Amino acid sequence: MDCLFCRIAAGAVPVPALYQDEQVYAFLDIAPQAPVHFLVIPKLHVQSLAHTAREHTALLGHMLAVAAELAAREGLLDGFRTVINSGEDGGQTIDHLHLHVLGGRPMGWPPG
Ligand code: 5GP
Ligand code: ZN
Predict the structure, then answer these.
(1) CATH says 4-103 is which class?
(2) Cross-strand bridge partners of residue 96
(3) How far is the CA of 97 from the centre of ligand 2 (A)?
(4) Tens of pLDDT along 28-75?
(5) Pocket of ligand 1 (CB under 6 A)
(6) Which residues surround ligand 2, an ion (CB under 5 A)?
């Protein structure tokens, strides 16, 4: 397994889980861009959002629902930002689909 996030989701790299179930694994980002910054990833290896299809609809919905649940649990009651970077122009650096959740301060727009 040469995918870092597959290894994290499998427990082969010890990254504490904020949450996990059969489908997803959530953990704190190693380089947080906000006071709260965590990632929700599928346990299934999917390269990016651009590599998903209709068959992934339930999985994608589950990732969003888990993100919202964890955002509330982490105290992001004033709101939060969700981000999925896809491909080179999207700024994706890890080629395993991941949903960022950022909050704990006003996130502003445009992002920066
Ligand atoms: P991307 O730029 O691909 O959307 O986001 C990848 C994210 O993964 C980055 O925010 C980066 O800080 C995070 N990341 C990269 N390597 C690790 C790691 O080994 N552990 C954790 N917890 N996060 C990582
Ligand atoms: Zn992977």
Answers:
(1) alpha beta
(2) none
(3) 8
(4) 999 999 999 999 999 999 999 999 999 999 999 999 999 999 999 999
(5) 4, 15, 27-31, 85, 91-94
(6) 3, 5-6, 45, 96
